[in-house]
């Protein structure tokens, strides 16, 4: 697993045009024509820039997170890795579920697991991934002041800054980094194991079916999230997903927490303001 190479100039122009169309540029931050990368960063401007351009680089670019090379390499993940990891697990869970229960009950439990995934995604994204705004702004200011080879984690002043950047801030500061859009197996596999144990305790023999639905939801999340940032699909559905998620990135990070589904944003009133 290594750093992804930059996209073509045409790809960068397309990405920049999408952002510019939906969220006009803030004059306080300088953008190169035809790209989506910040060329010069005044830390004071990053904090006071308002809702626009809340990132360090909007290109397909990476920062160095860790001092140790082996830790740095584990933080870069190709988008097909979750599929390679979880599709076999889903198949095994479904086989086990169908051996223990009727197809109808398996289907109901899978739907329950999928619904539980949407709750989990929303709660984690809203309450765990996003700290108070000043932490986000302070982290971005510090990251923007570092050189490309400077490890970020060791430069952040508090555990709260480090935790935020590690679990989510790196994505908000480098939203189109194609090697940090999906969860590393070193994190996703232990978390999946914990959720399976949870299902086992709550549902007993129904755990495999519920876990299969939950894992399908997670896999859909990773797939949709990567596609929103990197796929060129222009269908109406894809555009709605992209527009909603880009509102979260470039307009207001306290809205539009659902990536795979906007269900709980609608229920809990956190849908962003439409353009």
Keywords:
single chain, 275 residues, mainly alpha, two-stranded antiparallel ribbon, 11 helices, 2 strands, 60% helix, 2% strand, globular, disordered N terminus
Describe the overall structure:
The chain has 275 residues and is mainly α. It has one domain (9-268). Helix content is 60%, strand content 2%. The protein has helices spanning 9-22, 43-48, 69-74, 81-100, 103-129, 133-145, 159-173, 185-203, 207-230, 236-250, 263-268, and strands at residues 30-31, 38-40. The chain has a two-stranded antiparallel sheet. A hairpin with a 6-residue loop joins strand 1 (30-31) and strand 2. Helix 4 packs antiparallel against helix 9 (207-230), helix 6 (133-145) crosses helix 7 and helix 9 (207-230) crosses helix 10 (236-250). The longest helix has 27 residues, at 103-129. The two termini are 38 Å apart. Mean pLDDT is 83; it is low at 1-52.
Query: Which sequence of SSEs, written as H and E, runs from N to C?
Result: HEEHHHHHHHHHH
From the alpha carbons, calculate the radius of gyration and give it in angstroms.
Answer: 20 Å
Strand arrangement, largest sheet? 1-2
Provide the residue-averaged pLDDT: 83
In terms of DSSP E residues, the strand content is: under 5%
SSE-based structural type: mainly alpha
Give the N-terminus to C-terminus distance in angstroms.
38 Å
Helical run tally = 11
Largest sheet: 2 strands, antiparallel
Total domain count:
1
């Amino acid at each position: 697993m290594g750093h992804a190479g930059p996209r073509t100039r045409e790809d960068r122009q397309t990405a920049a045009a999408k952002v510019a169309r939906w969220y006009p540029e803030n004059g306080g931050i300088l953008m190169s024509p035809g790209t989506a990368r910040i060329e010069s960063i005044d830390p004071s401007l990053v904090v006071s820039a308002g809702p626009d351009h809340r990132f360090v680089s909007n290109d397909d670019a990476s920062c160095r997170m860790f001092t140790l090379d082996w830790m740095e390499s584990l933080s870069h993940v190709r988008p097909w890795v979750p599929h390679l990891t979880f599709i076999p697990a889903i198949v095994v869970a479904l086989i086990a579920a169908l051996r223990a229960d009727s197809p109808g009950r398996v289907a109901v439990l899978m739907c329950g697991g999928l619904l539980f995934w949407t709750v989990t995604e929303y709660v984690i994204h809203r309450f765990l991934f996003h700290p108070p705004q000043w932490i986000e702004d302070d982290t971005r200011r510090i990251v923007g002041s570092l050189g490309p080879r400077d490890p970020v984690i060791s430069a952040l002043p508090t555990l709260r800054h480090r935790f935020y950047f590690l679990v989510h801030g790196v994505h908000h500061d480098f939203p189109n980094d194609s090697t940090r859009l999906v969860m590393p197996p070193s994190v996703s596999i232990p978390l999946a194991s914990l959720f399976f144990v949870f299902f086992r305790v709550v549902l007993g023999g129904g755990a495999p079916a519920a876990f299969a639905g939950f894992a399908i939801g997670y896999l859909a999340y990773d797939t949709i999230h990567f596609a929103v940032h990197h796929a060129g699909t222009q269908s109406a559905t894809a555009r709605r997903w992209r527009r909603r998620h880009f509102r979260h990135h470039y307009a207001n990070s306290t809205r539009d927490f659902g990536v795979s589904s906007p269900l709980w944003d609608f229920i809990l009133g956190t849908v962003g303001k439409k353009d």
